[in-house]
Design brief:
Blueprint: E1 2-6, E2 9-11, E3 18-19, E4 24-25, E5 32-34, H1 36-52, E6 55-61, H2 67-76, E7 80-84
Parallel strand pairs: 1-6, 6-7
Antiparallel strand pairs: 2-5, 3-4
Amino acid sequence: MDIVICIKEVPETTDVPWDPKKGTLIREGIPGILNPNDKNAIEAALQLTEKYGGVVTAISMGPTQTDDALREALSLGVDNAVLLTDRHL
């Protein structure tokens, strides 16, 4: 059983400033972490592949610093990690 999990890096804190003009979060200076729900999905996928065999691949999209989330996924036991990136992301 081969499983692909989409993961995302999110701000570490819930107290992230908001830019009302742009309608976006101000992420400068705020470290990112692997989304806790994505961690749960990784654990479930690893349990399935432990029981039935197979490979777990994590995929993420974003700027190059997103590779921290992918590295964490690999440290949790994911077999492969893929980063889709473009200067427009």
